[in-house]
Specification:
The protein is an alpha/beta fold and 309 residues long.
Length: 309
C-alpha cells in the first residue's frame, strides 16, 4: 500500500517508522492528528493564535483510511475542516502549525491560515462546496492527459445544500471523470441536525446523476480503508466518479467554542471514537509508547513553530 508524497519536514514519530506494523502506523497517524487538533484548540485558548479553526476530532479515521490509498499524481481537495486531511497526506506538522501561526515558514508563508492550504497534491478552501468544481477540473485534466491519477474531494453533510455540488456531479458523471467524493456525514451542519436541514436521502443526492454511492457507518479505520481502497481502485480504473459516504461524528464543537448538541449524545460517541476502536488492536504497551512518541514530537513542533520569525 503506497502513501502520498510527504514534504521533507515529515517526522516518522508522527507518521510511522519504516517497517512499522500497519495497525501501529494507523494508530500513530490518528493519534498525531488528534493531538495536533487538541493542541491548536489549547493554543487558541492561550491567545497564541488568531482567527478561527475547525478541528476534526473524532473523524481522524476518515483521513488516514482514504489517503493511504493515494499515490504520486493524485490530488486531494478539502474544506474548512482540513487539518486531518492535510496531515494524513503530508505529515508536515511544522508547516501547518507555522501556517496557522501566520509564520513565514508556513505551508503558504502564513497567508492561508487554517482553512486555505495550497501544497503539492493538496488544496483546501473554506467556501462550502466551492472546492468541488476545482476537484473535477483536476480530474478532467488527468483524464485528458491519459494518466490514471485520481482527484479526491472531501465534503461535509452540510455542503450538500450547495447547488454547485450538483452542477459538478452532472458534468463528472457525463464525462466519467476520475473523481472520488468523500462525504463525511458528522450528523450536524454546525449546530443544525441533519433531520432539520436535509430532505430525501444521502445516496439519492448522488444516484440521481448515476453516481454510485458506497456508505460506511463506522469509526473503524480498517473498515473505512477497505471501502476507500475499493472505491479509489474503481475510479482509477476509469469507471467514472464515485461517492464514499462515511457516517462519522464530530466530537468537538464546530469551530472553537460553538456547540449546542446534547451532552449525552456526545458522551456516547466518545465510547466508539476512532482511537478507542482501533486502539484495541494494539497492546497497552505499544499504544502508550506511540502516545509518548507522538507527544514528544508534537511538543518539538510547537516549540519550533513558536520560535520562527
Amino acid at each position: 500500500m503506497s502513501t502520498a508524497l510527504a514534504p521533507a519536514r515529515t517526522d516518522e514519530r508522527l507518521t510511522g517508522v519504516p517497517g512499522e506494523p500497519l495497525d501501529h502506523r494507523r494508530y500513530r497517524r490518528m493519534r498525531f492528528i488528534r493531538r495536533f487538533e487538541e493542541t491548536l484548540l489549547q493554543l487558541f485558548e492561550e491567545g497564541a493564535l488568531n482567527g478561527t479553526t475547525h478541528a476534526c476530532i473524532g473523524q481522524e479515521a476518515d483521513a488516514v483510511a482514504v489517503t493511504e490509498h493515494l499515490t504520486e499524481g493524485d490530488h486531494i481537495f478539502s474544506n474548512h475542516r482540513c487539518h486531518g486531511h492535510y496531515l494524513a497526506h503530508s505529515g508536515d506538522a511544522l508547516g501547518l502549525m507555522a501556517e496557522i501561526m501566520g509564520k513565514e515558514a508556513g505551508v503558504c508563508r502564513g497567508l492561508g491560515g487554517s482553512q486555505h492550504i495550497c501544497a503539492p497534491g493538496f488544496k483546501s478552501n473554506g467556501v462550502q462546496g466551492g472546492i468541488v468544481p476545482n476537484a473535477a477540473g483536476i480530474a478532467l485534466a488527468n483524464q485528458l492527459s491519459g494518466n490514471d491519477a485520481v482527484s479526491v474531494v472531501f465534503i461535509g453533510d452540510g455542503t450538500l445544500g450547495e447547488g454547485v455540488v450538483y452542477e459538478t456531479l452532472n458534468m463528472a458523471s457525463l464525462w466519467k471523470l476520475p473523481l472520488l467524493v468523500v462525504c463525511e456525514d458528522n450528523r450536524w451542519a454546525q449546530s443544525t441536525p441533519i433531520a432539520a436541514n436535509m430532505a430525501g436521502s444521502f445516496p439519492g443526492r448522488f444516484s440521481a446523476f448515476g453516481v454510485p454511492v458506497r456508505s460506511v457507518d463506522s469509526t473503524d479505520v480498517a473498515e473505512i480503508s477497505q471501502a476507500a481502497g475499493q472505491e479509489i481502485a474503481a475510479v482509477r480504473a476509469g469507471e467514472g466518479p464515485r461517492v464514499l459516504l462515511i457516517h462519522t461524528y464530530r466530537l468537538c464543537h464546530h469551530s472553537k467554542s460553538d456547540d449546542e448538541r446534547p451532552e449525552q449524545e456526545i458522551a456516547e460517541r466518545w465510547l466508539v471514537e476512532p482511537l478507542v476502536v482501533h486502539g484495541r488492536r494494539l497492546s497497552d504497551s505499544d499504544r502508550l509508547r506511540i502516545d509518548d512518541e507522538v507527544e514528544t514530537a508534537l511538543g518539538e513542533v510547537v516549540a519550533t513553530a513558536r520560535a520562527l520569525p
